[in-house]
Amino acid sequence: MSNTMNVLMSDATDEKLVEWAKKGNLEAYAELVRRYRERIYQTIFRFTRSHHDTDDLAQETFLQGFKALKHFNQRSSFYTWIFRIAVNQCLNFLKKKKSEMMMEEYKENVLGNGRPFSPAPDSEAMVNELRARLDEAVASLPEPYKSSFIMVVFQGMTHAEAARILRCSGKTVSWRMHKARKMIQARLRFYFNEVSNEVPKI
Amino acid sequence: MKCPKYERWISDALDGSVSEKRRKILEGHLAQCPDCRAYHDRLSRIQVEASRPEEIKLSSHYWEGFSARLDQKLRSLKPEAEQGILRRLGWRWAWSGAAVLLAAALGLIFLRNQGRPLENDVFSFEACLDRLGQEIGEDVKLEDKFTSLIISSLGEEFDFAGLEERWAIFAGPFIWESLSDEELEFVEQETTKEIKS
């Protein structure tokens, strides 16, 4: 791609790029991919916790996006639209993966091993430990609690926004969030027991 | 003390999805219930930690490779003309076909119920679809046709890529089990319009 074309693409709005990409302009679509690939990657990684799977699903997301572009009516932003495709890809992936998992392995992941927490002496290490435990706890959530939690807490969506993507009601998302938090809290119980005196009042 | 109602409200409040009235009631409850206060504190801690952006740093070399692989795949896509006829179906045609099938199935259901009392919900849209699924479930070609028509019509109004994904999961006459209330309502409205016309 020439420098002039590069500048033209990088200056164009998403709407313009979508318009060009709909006509088959791959450079325009490549620019859209460049703008959102990292955010989409981060989102998918939240679901899979595997770089290999995330790479595959991110590729598939943008490929499906291009194929379906002619059906994109631009009532929402391109990012919102491609994000929906990414989430759908993740949900299908997790369903497939779950069906492939041995039941024992699944139970182990979901119920957790309950190993005691040993907080490191300094606070930064403690925070990192909590983060690692939290990621494990979220990864172990059964569907559809995991997708609701990822969208609402990690992506900052409202219940209504998440409900639209998950094709359910806002009340269902509210219930799933409540249950997800209870499961995460149960999984982190050793952490909270150990540091209960240090938890700041928010 | 277990306070399930307030635990649910605490979760909603953390997501900013609790009404002002409930928030005030919740604040009053938290002031007097140490268990709920501790629960709120634990969830707040989780919320704060989870909201901290997780940085995944990948090299520019990786992203160049990512885009190059994607570009190769995009360039190898078949021309649109070679893609299935389904995507090129106009929604009007699709709805006409779906309406004919639905009317035929309703007729079948009605005839089969002659002489027997009808259940109250037999004419509800979901009940009709359910019965329709049972009626055409034995006929693979009819089932495929009906599902294709529903999907292609919905694809005009909703996110096609998402529908395709769900179609892969809910293949067969039970596609509506994967539809949201909004989509189901759309199917009902459009089918009703077609039957009337």
The assigned structural class of chain A equals: mainly alpha
Largest sheet of chain A: none
Q: In CATH, what is the class of the largest domain in chain A?
A: Mainly Alpha
Q: How many discrete domains of chain A?
A: 2
| Assembly state (oligomeric) | heterodimer
- What's the architecture of the largest domain in chain A, going by CATH? Orthogonal Bundle
> What is the number of strand segments of chain A?
0
Query: Can you summarize the main beta sheet of chain B?
Result: none
Rounded radius of gyration of chain A (Å): 20 Å
What would you note in describing this structure?
The complex is a heterodimer of chains A (202) and B (197). The longest helix of chain A is centred in the first third of the chain and has 23 residues, at 26-48. Chain A has eleven helices and no strands. Helix content of chain A is 75%, strand content 0%. Chain B is mostly helical and 197 residues long. Helix content of chain B is 69%, strand content 0%. The radius of gyration of chain B is 26 Å and the shape is flat. Residues 81-91, 115-123 and 169-174 of chain B have low confidence and may be disordered. Classes of the chains: A mainly alpha (202), B mainly alpha (197). Chains A and B meet through helix 3, helix 4, helix 5, helix 7 and helix 8 of A and helix 1, helix 3, helix 4 and helix 8 of B.
What does the secondary structure layout of this molecule look like, with pairings?
The complex is a heterodimer of chains A (202) and B (197).
Chain A: H1 3-11, H2 14-22, H3 26-48, H4 51-68, H5 78-100, H6 103-111, H7 123-140, H8 145-154, H9 159-166, H10 170-187, H11 189-195
Helix pairs in contact in A: 2-3, 3-4, 3-5, 4-5, 7-10, 8-9, 8-10, 9-10
Chain B: H1 4-14, H2 20-32, H3 34-51, H4 60-75, H5 91-112, H6 125-136, H7 140-157, H8 160-169, H9 181-196
